[in-house]
Design brief:
The chain has 177 residues and is an alpha+beta fold. Helix content is 17%, strand content 40%. An 8-stranded antiparallel beta barrel has the order 1-5-4-3-2-6-7-8. The longest helix has 10 residues.
């Protein structure tokens, strides 16, 4: 079984842009209703993702936290595009920037469309308590805030958030460490 251990952060500065190694545009949507994920009646999220000439079907445990079961399978791009168009509850788009710091990969997602203005850094770790670099541009951790999950951003995009919700994330309210 695949396990994903991932922590998510807001960014405190823009100087990470100087370290970008590559970037890719990603479109993704969810095949299990996002409401079912939010209300707890779904045990997993099923995501389809397209990036350039590649596509994947991803199944991930639907629970809050930094450690979750995850399975990822390559699929034909045409199939993924059909699933996004016909089966998903909506799609989100983002540009993923790859930045290495002291041998650790940070995937920085810059959201587009209704989620424009939101930028988060994710780091995948080998264990829950693994040490990782903390560059000055890495801000408040939001791993425990469900509204920052991509499944939530499909249903309730960043553009719909109140000033209080945005400020709460900036202050780290409810974040897990």
């Amino acid at each position: 079984m695949g396990i994903e251990i991932e922590r998510k952060f807001l960014l405190a500065a823009d100087d990470w842009r100087e370290q970008i190694e590559r970037s890719e545009r990603i479109a993704q949507g969810y095949l299990i209703g996002t409401r079912a994920l939010r209300d707890g009646s779904a045990r997993a999220s099923v995501r389809v993702r397209v990036s350039g000439a590649q596509a994947w079907l991803n199944v991930k445990a639907a629970r809050v936290g930094i450690e979750r079961a995850e399975f990822d399978y390559p699929i034909p791009v045409a199939d993924a595009e059909a699933m996004l168009a016909e089966l998903s509850d909506g799609a989100l788009e983002k540009v993923r920037h790859h930045v290495h710091v002291d041998g650790t990969l940070f995937e920085i997602d810059e959201f587009l469309g209704d989620n424009a203005g939101l930028i988060v850094a994710e780091v995948e770790l080998p264990s829950v308590d693994a040490a990782f670099p903390r560059p000055a541009w890495l801000g408040v951790e939001v791993s425990g805030l469900v509204r920052y999950y991509n499944t939530s951003l499909v249903e309730r995009p960043y553009a719909a958030w109140s000033a209080e919700e945005r400020a709460a994330g900036d202050a780290g309210e409810g974040a897990s460490c």
